[in-house]
Specification:
With 161 residues, the chain is mostly helical. Helices cover 73% and strands 0% of the residues. The chain has one domain (2-160). It is built from 6 helices and no strands. Helix 2 runs parallel beside helix 5.
Length: 161
């Protein structure tokens, strides 16, 4: 099971790198077209906006599973003691609840976007599929927040006791 997850993580990471490369190439081409030829790439803002959302939300479950979210380690010496494990699990549940709420709100937005035929400005790309993607990946991140291992810092073990 872990080998399959590692393989999936590897391929998702590679896909994210390719999307980031595409976004950089598109932005570079758009700027060159604007400055040198006075002809920007039509729809570059729409494509960049969609690629950015895909990059961020496809990476969210991976980041959550690795405990890679921004954290402040000012109190780690105190909070990483074994007695605080229930606190860490409560924080994980809170994170999962917030991510679940975000997933739910985007799930609601899918229906709204379909009923109003919401599309991007220049290319008229339907927005509902992006909302569906965001809802799905945020729900995966919520599950990952519940399944993630508790933080461990062995180098604090001897001095924290």
């Amino acid at each position: 099971m872990k080998v399959g997850l590692k393989t999936l993580e590897h391929w998702v990471g590679a896909l994210l790198v390719l999307m980031l490369l595409a976004m950089v190439a598109l932005t570079f081409t758009d700027v060159l077209g604007r400055r040198l030829l006075n002809t920007p790439v039509f729809g570059a803002n729409d494509i960049t906006e969609h690629l950015m959302a895909i990059i961020i939300f496809a990476g969210l479950p991976l980041l959550t599973a690795r405990r890679g979210h921004l954290s402040i380690d000012l109190f780690d010496h105190w909070l990483l003691r074994p007695a605080w494990r229930p606190w860490h699990k409560a924080v994980d549940v809170l994170i999962a609840a917030v991510l679940g709420l975000v997933a739910y709100e985007y799930f609601i937005a899918i229906g709204d976007a379909r009923s109003t035929n919401e599309v991007s400005q220049a290319l008229a790309i339907p927005r509902w599929w992006m909302y569906a993607f965001i809802s799905f990946t945020t729900a995966l991140a919520a599950v990952a927040a519940l399944l993630v291992d508790a933080p461990r810092h062995e180098h604090l073990g001897a001095s924290a006791s």
